[in-house]
Amino acid sequence: LVKNGDPIRIDATPEKRTIDLLISDEEWEQRRQAWTPPPLRSSSGTLFKYIQTVATASEGCVTDEVGTASAAEIAQAAPKTPAIAELEAKVAELEAKLGQ
Questions:
Q1: Predicted confidence (pLDDT) per residue in 52-74, tens digit
Q2: Widest CA span of the chain, in angstroms?
Q3: Whether the Cβ atoms of residue 85 and residue 77 lie closer than 8 Å to each other
Q4: Which member of 68, 71, 82, 90 has the greatest number of CB atoms within 10 A?
């Protein structure tokens, strides 16, 4: 959405640390509506599978947590190995059965 030559404002003070794009709200909305995602760099194979299943960087870039209920659960599980996450899920399942 940002184009070459667009004016920006950088505030590097410790309180702010921002980069602002100085275009009108109308221009921003026009660009947003006209934008189309670029084609994927791969359409088959392992890289394509990775592209389709990887979580965002803020969620830990994991591929083995797809299908959890929320982004918070993905982020919470991200530092764990798949084996640990699976073991914890199994323990929770067994504890739930014991509690019935």
A1: 778 777 777 777 654 544 655 65
A2: 64
A3: yes
A4: 68
